[in-house]
Amino acid sequence: MLQKKARPGYKKIIKTSAKTLIVVEALLFAVSYAGWYRLNTNREFRYYVKENYPSILEAYYQLGETLGSDKTIRTYDENIWQQEQQVTKK
After folding, report:
1. What is the structure's pLDDT at 10?
2. pTM of this prediction?
3. Three-state SS sequence of the chain
């Protein structure tokens, strides 16, 4: 008769770890994409990020300027926010 041999335990650990790593990476990618999409489409959210996390907004602007080679979003946002501040002061 054939005897069954037990599989080494490290193979199971490696396989489980690889699956877990892939799932975690997919979740982190989805969260980062959702954040980027919201930054890209919602000016009010950009203002919130400016007030609370200015380094993240600066990185967003720098990435956009590097890839798009224009500063239109940054200048547009600054103009709108200045106009809103002037209206609230009056």
Report:
1. 82
2. 0.71
3. CCCCCCCCHHHHHHHHHHHHHHHHHHHHHHHHHHHHHHHHHCHHHHHHHHHHCHHHHHHHHHHHHHHHCCCHHHHHHHHHHHHHHHHHHC
